[in-house]
Amino acid sequence: MTEVEPGMTRRQVRRLLGSPTQSINDRQFLARYSTRSSLDLRIWPRRNRSEAWVYADTPHTGLATFIHFRRGRVDRVSTSPLPGPGPEGPVDPG
Fold this sequence. Notes:
The chain is α+β, with helices and mostly antiparallel strands. The chain has helices spanning 10-17, 26-33, 44-47; strands at 22-25, 51-56, 63-70, 73-81. The protein has a 4-stranded antiparallel beta sheet with strand order 1-2-3-4. The longest helix is centred in the N-terminal third of the chain and has 8 residues, at 10-17.
């Protein structure tokens, strides 16, 4: 996988990786990939303006890369196993 770094634009990410498998906002991301106990409902309205792009099988088969954007720029990149039947979420690669 080509390096995606904080501060990159959506256009730069698309040029490197192509179109995402899925695009979700933070509200949808938290609902899908967080456990109920870890949700802080007070942050939802403020964070609803950002977006996460999901790239399945990137960098390897069985993994997903989540690229989080805030104000049109990459804010954070995380990788995790592809979500299965249970609530699995991304982890920081560092």
